[in-house]
Amino acid sequence: MDQGFSLLVVVIALGMFAVGLLAVVSLVPASRESVRRTVSAARAAAIAERELARIRTFYGCPESPPPKFLEGSEPGGYRWDVRIEGDEDIYTVTLTVYWRDEGRENSEVFVTRFVPR
Question: Which domain CATH number covers 95?
């Protein structure tokens, strides 16, 4: 018995290895879900950034006051709406981006203010 491992030690070691391997494998679906949610939220942020820049560009001067409400849609099932409040001194813009993810409606809200030039 001094020359090697007993069968019990080998079985215990294989069991510990199997438990560790199963733990690592079970993390894969959770990490894929997290990556998918992150990509969706990043896409929503990119849409919001583009639309907010467009609003500042088109309605950034006192001669062209912005509308109170705008909406639009994007490829991939994304849609957005904008609510603009304020007067000619400062506007508060609330932009909400909506999308469906595995049958569930998600949304992200972005709020900013701008002063017409």
Answer: 3.30.1300
Beta bridge partners of 82: 70, 95
Q: From edge to edge, which strands make up the β-sheet containing 91-101?
A: 69-74, 78-86, 91-101, 104-114
Structural domains in the chain (count)? 1
Instruction: For residues 62 and 117, give the distance between their C-alpha atoms in angstroms, rounded to a whole number.
Output: 7
Predicted TM-score (pTM) of this structure: 0.72
What backbone torsions phi and psi does residue 28 show, to the nearest 5 degrees? -60, -50
103 in a structural domain: yes
- In the chain, how long is the greatest CA-to-CA distance? 94
78: domain range? Answer: 7-114
- Asked if 51 and 66 touch (Cβ cutoff 8 Å), the reply is no
> Residues of the chain with pLDDT > 70: what percent?
98
Residues 87-111: tens digit of each pLDDT = 878 899 999 999 998 888 999 999 9
For residue 51, what are its two tokens? Answer: 């639309």
